[in-house]
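step 3/5: co-fold with glutamine
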Amino acid sequence: MNLMEKINNVLNMGREILQNNNIDISEARLLLAFVLHIDTSELITRDECTSNEVGKFLVVLEKRVNGYPYAYIVGYKEFMKLKFKVDKNVLIPRSETELLVENVLKIIQSNKYEKILDLCTGSGCIAISLKKNANCINVTASDISNDALNIATHNSEVLNANVSFIQSNLFENISDVFDIIVSNPPYIPTKDIEQLQIEIQKEPIIALDGGIDGLDIYRIIAHKAKEHLKDNGYLCLEIGYNQGESLKQILTNEGYKNIQIIKDLSNNDRNVICRK
Ligand code: GLN
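step 4/5: write tokens
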């Protein structure tokens, strides 16, 4: 028998479970709407749900309480006003990363650049939002992980972005030369990973781990990007909140010029931009 439950009671139960686990209670409405396959605005028009639906809601709440990120449960994340499919194979796009996209867009517009490479593309969020906001550009994106590339390709198709994808461990399978190379590579020091929030630990370690000091991937990118940039081309990277000075050093040693560290709204180092 499928008993009916009052929506309000179900929602309150969800809120209580979330609150007891220090999770934002506003997610209860979002998760219930997800389980019921309706928009949150339609929740008020529904008076009841079945005990079967309550069961599904409980399963989702349990996942959430166990640290499974909200974006992986609902299967998408918004970035630059676009909806990106995500799953456990890709890093969830962060709002901080929009700063990198905005900075690259400014460079594209003021220099009329057109050939762009996005390394470590993950969900494809950087490459695809660049292409959608500057239609005239030619964007290539790469990732070491085929599972990530499947998601990125899906996002590019659904969003009608026409980005080209290449499976590659950094520059290994890349032969072309670009006006701009952009990347938000893994940059967390290995020893810090187990101290991260439980939710972040559910994301792919390969997308987070930047080696002993978090800078391993930057060293490789800084060294190799020179072979893949046109003269005066730009290298644009997202960096960790305290990595600005280290990056300046690495890039200076590799001979880059006009090195600029850009802070985010919280006054943390967030982007580094330089030229070959
Ligand atoms: N470029 C993707 C993003 O910024 C993935 C980054 C990564 O996997 N380190 O979300």
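step 5/5: annotate
The pocket of glutamine is lined by residues 91, 93, 97, 120-123, 125-126, 184-186, 207 (CB under 6 Å).
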